[in-house]
Structures are given as C-alpha cells and as structure tokens.
UniProtKB/TrEMBL annotation:
It comes from Paenibacillus lentus. The lineage of its organism: Bacteria, Bacillati, Bacillota, Bacilli, Bacillales. It comes from the Bacteria. One of its GO terms (molecular function) is nucleotide binding. Pfam families: GFO_IDH_MocA, GFO_IDH_MocA_C3. Signal peptide: none annotated. Residues 132-246 form the GFO/IDH/MocA-like oxidoreductase domain. Residues 1-117 form the Gfo/Idh/MocA-like oxidoreductase N-terminal domain. This is Gfo/Idh/MocA family oxidoreductase. Gene3D superfamilies: Dihydrodipicolinate Reductase, domain 2, NAD(P)-binding Rossmann-like Domain. PANTHER family: PTHR43054, SCYLLO-INOSITOL 2-DEHYDROGENASE (NADP(+)) IOLU.
Amino acid sequence: MNIATIGTGFIVDTFLAAAKQIKDIHCVAMYSRNKETAQPLAEKYGIPVIYTELDALMADPKIDFVYIASPNSLHCEHATLALEHGKHVICEKPFTSTVAELDRLIALAKHKNLMLFEAITTLHLPNYQLAKEQLAQLGAIKFIQCNYSQYSSRYNQLLNGETPNVFSTEFSGGALTDINIYNLHFVMNMFGAPQSVSYTANKHPNGIDTSGILVLKYSDFIAQCVGCKDTNSMNFVLIQGEKGYLHVEHGANGCRKLILHANGRETLLNAQTNENLLYYELTAFKQMYQAQDYQQCHQLLDHSRSVIETVVQARQDAQIVFAADTL
C-alpha cells in the first residue's frame, strides 16, 4: 500500500508517524508547492520524492493512495484529481464543504471502483467501539453532552486582523468544520441522523464561527455538541441514560479512557495502547483495502455524507456561508 501525501502540516507528520508503524504501508512521495516546505518531513520519514506539480504526483504509477490534508476548500478538487488518475483516496475531515461536492466524489469513486475514505479518527478507535458496547447498561438515553475545545494557534492572527485558512469562509474553515465535527461523528455514528439541527455560534466579523453550540434533537433525547477554537476547556463526552452515564475522557477526538457509572459502581475501561490515534484509522483502511471490502467502505461513505449534510444544515441555521456554497 504505497501512499503519497498532499500537505505539510502537523497532521501529515502524525499520519506519517502512524504509517511508519504499520507493516506494508509506505509513503513514497509528497506534494508541496514549495519543495523546501516538505523537505523536513521527507528527511524525517525517508520519503524519496517531493513533487511540486500535482499532475506529476498523480501520474506516478507507484502510488496506490493519495492522502489529502490540504485546506478544507481544496479537498474536493484534490480528491477528484486523484480519483480521475486511478488513485484511492484518504481525505482529512471535513470531507468536503458541501453535500454536492461529496456526492460527486462518491459517484466518481464508485464509477472508477476506487476506495474513498474520510480520515476521521473517532470511528476507528477501540475505545469508541467500547463506548458503543456500554450503551445497553445506561438504559434509555436522555441527554448527551460533548465538548471539544482547543485554543487555536491561529486565533491570535485572526485577532490581529489576519485571516488564516482555518478562520476563513473562503477556505471552508471555522469551529464547526474543524473541531465540532468530531462530536458530530461520535454522536451520529452511534445514533444516526437527528430529526432537527440548530447551531448558535460566536462569529467573527468576517462571518466565520470561532466557537459554537450545536443541538441535535432525536425522538427520545437531545445531544449538545460544543466546539471552540477561541477558548480551552475540559474535553469530554457524557452519555446520560436513565440507569447510568458514560464519561468519555478527553472528548470525541481521542476517547482516551471511558468511565462507566452504572449498577451502583464505577468501571474504568481502556482498550487503546497506541498514543498515535491515526494508527487505528490507517490500520482499518489497510484492512479494507487488502480485503477489497467495498461494502464497508461504502457504509462509511453513507455515514460521512449524513454528517456533511448535518454540518451544512447547521451552517445554514447560523448563517455561515462558504465560498463553495455558490459553486
């Protein structure tokens, strides 16, 4: 399984470190507009080729998969190019800016008989699967609270009058798409799509959300998802049922440890042994690829589409408009 990467941010470093731990996965090339930007990672992980032209990377016959970690607004363009060149795709979250973009990617991947994955760590974590297994002990679910807050290193730039990509409507940024989306995946993969969605956001004058609270209404319970890039917080998930509650430490992104409060006792649960969370998703993608398990791949795509649909509904509720909305 030979992979090429697009992007040079910290998440690419984490991805390459995970790939290094998994047998038969090799990073054989990188893309960056400036070779000097990619050089430190290429040297760190022994990657032999740095491309500065996307077409050249896509034409490389050694490459099976393209891992996309470019700015959010470019995900669809880069994934389309990779699929058109016969490459399987792993795309960082958020998958796309709009539902229409994702529909086009899914149709193209199926037409080409290629695998297309959203790199969302949560779904593939052992502790997330453990959390699902504890639901029966909680009784009827009544309320879910999620908080994933992380003061962005780019927020000070925004306050100083700059517009970094992560806080730009042009580049499909903001707290909802960058950070609260982990909470959405956590809740929706467990319980499906909500009946209604509302999003109340703290918005910068440029129209982007720097933090916000997303409320998902289901037939029998409410889920509250908080995502902030302008403050820090204790990150957690609480799933509250009539017979007990489950505390997910460090939130939906990491699921580092579970504490089950049920039957009059407290039980600690932890099935994760690897600190690099991307290790688990990459292992899952490798297994599906080797088994040619398109059914599971397509099930994940159905879930991702539902999440993107919910994100778009939330943005519309908060009147957050991306440049991609007008395309």
